[in-house]
Amino acid sequence: MKPTMSDVARAAGVSAMTVSNALTGRRPVSPATRARVERAAADLGYELNLTARHLRAGRTDTVALVVPHFDHPYYGELAARMGRHLADQGRHLVVEQSGARREAELAAVAPARWQLYDGVLLSAVGTTPDDLAGLHTSVPLVLLGEQQMPARYDHVRMDNVAGARLATRHLLATGSRRVAIVGGADPDRDAGMRTARTLGWTMAHTDTGTAPAPELLVRTGPDLSAGRDAVRRLLSDGTDFDAVFAVTDTLAVGVLAALAEAGRRVPDDVQVVGFDNLASSGFTVPALTTVDPGHEQMAVETLRLLDQVVARAASGEADGRSSGPEHVTAPVRLVVRATTRSA
Amino acid sequence: MKPTMSDVARAAGVSAMTVSNALTGRRPVSPATRARVERAAADLGYELNLTARHLRAGRTDTVALVVPHFDHPYYGELAARMGRHLADQGRHLVVEQSGARREAELAAVAPARWQLYDGVLLSAVGTTPDDLAGLHTSVPLVLLGEQQMPARYDHVRMDNVAGARLATRHLLATGSRRVAIVGGADPDRDAGMRTARTLGWTMAHTDTGTAPAPELLVRTGPDLSAGRDAVRRLLSDGTDFDAVFAVTDTLAVGVLAALAEAGRRVPDDVQVVGFDNLASSGFTVPALTTVDPGHEQMAVETLRLLDQVVARAASGEADGRSSGPEHVTAPVRLVVRATTRSA
DNA sequence: CTGTTAGCGCTTTCAA
DNA sequence: TTGAAAGCGCTAACAG
Questions:
Q1: Fewest Cβ atoms closer than 10 Å to its Cβ: which of B4, B153, B231, B332?
Q2: Tell me, what's the pLDDT at B319?
Q3: pLDDT band, residue A317 (cuts 50/70/90)
Q4: Hey, which CATH number is domain B160-292, 3.40.50.2300, 1.20.120.420, 3.10.20.30, 3.30.450.20?
Q5: Which positions of chain D lie under 7 Å from any protein Cβ?
Q6: pTM for the full model?
Q7: Does the domain formed by A5-48 have CATH 3.40.30.10?
Q8: Alpha carbon of B122 to those of A63, B52, B161: distances in Å?
């Protein structure tokens, strides 16, 4: 059997309480006692049991971040950034993967898990507002993502419409007239990221008194290959286009690959803009013009809200009115690189 | 106060034990009782406390994977793959980030955390074999990574030397004579991934009865920009080279960016090979030839070893001789794409 | 500075 | 089928 504090206490000839104090330093212990305790602990190979401490303390000093996929660079970068911030504050971050599945997202924020973590950041893509609104408690939960979300939770998002509008406007301002959107969505379907970015694309056209041709809207999957396939399709359909707004940088990489393979020059024949400003986006050939969604602001705001809601929960408030849930939209910014011409 | 099982029991007019049984289904409960319990639980907004269960059960059904950085695609893909496998088996994976720092890696496998997880997969890059060898217990731990590792733990790695040799041999076989290595290391320094891959590069030359010129070895950081900067330096130094072996695909992306910016054609003027076969590597311009390190085999082997060591720990064996630690090297494979000429 | 008591919330006995 | 008691390992709270 694994040795416990009592075992150490017996071996050192002290009480368990003293062992605890000696090991954690929470209360002063005489040097002699501390030495004896440490000796005994080492001899027995004693190891602290954190589950017991958590049960006792009711806190874990750990925050969980639930993302759809570990291997999507956007989420990897998000997790890394969050992890750095939390580590700076001496807290732990653990990341879980939901596979973008509704059940997995719900399981991750299920009541049962709420004692495991002091708070949960959920990057929701598979759940409906109703799913989340149905949760019957005030969990320390902050929502991230571009879906429609229930109003009762704090929520941080990026300004998708403004970003897409900015991107598309830049394409139109630099001489493009037929701007395809790769990864677009029907505006009347879901209210997710794609829909919002499609709306921005449409609005940019409206701004200049035009309207995009319907055949320029290409629906796709989320992966690199989807971006490539979309452009191949456009090309094989003979659709006329002189610019592509890819709704994510990931898709944009596929778009660039397809254009290169078809011998279309970027930006001379076709301009390209992405969205997300991934770390790798400055290193495509040519370097990708994209929309920065305000990564850092989102991270900072998210953690601020988390602290707020955790404090609210700690202070025993069931559904406190001290400060209602906030809904933050981070500001976007266009990053002009080499896949677009200068104005 | 949050309601507990006793609260539910009182409300339902039964014992806590019956609540537990009714809710978990571990033991049969009469339909009428179950209904009353469920009713009471719902009314009170009862939520299971997992920390208590874990303390009691001594297991968490959760495995932790500790990686240096969430935002390095190699680790993101590794985590995603592990997560999928474990989810298929009904177990949880949580991922932590060590920042590649020695203390963080040690903290992640510190005794204190071992009750939190049924097992830990450590992607070690910051620790020395001695650090890990010093751990004084038989933790369910499987090591991943290309460092030297202490023999007492299971360890899964890729065949770096063979892979680098394969890559370089391909470059030499397709007509290149001056093969630069970007991200190389002095063979007599640490025994990490870079050293191994540098060794493979050297061996490929030896295989053909030549030796690489020292100025073709470029030391770099790990990032995209490091790959770009390495090539810029090579170019500005006037070093003659007609191929680049980048020790990671990430560096290779930077290499391609720098070559494009300098107007060197790939593969006509300069051939390029990477290492890791990231998901995005098929979508560079041109598509990157690279070494696949056997991702899937590594994942499968890792989980096999983990199950083994967890079982060993569960069966109370202190340092069981039933089956010693295994050291597995996954086989590599060259993936030829468009940054190299065909033989 | 150190010890005693009690209990975090759940579940494994053992008994009815 | 249900219950009572005991305890997982740790640490507040209250002595001393």
A1: B4
A2: 45
A3: low
A4: 3.40.50.2300
A5: 1-13
A6: 0.92
A7: no
A8: 20, 27, 22
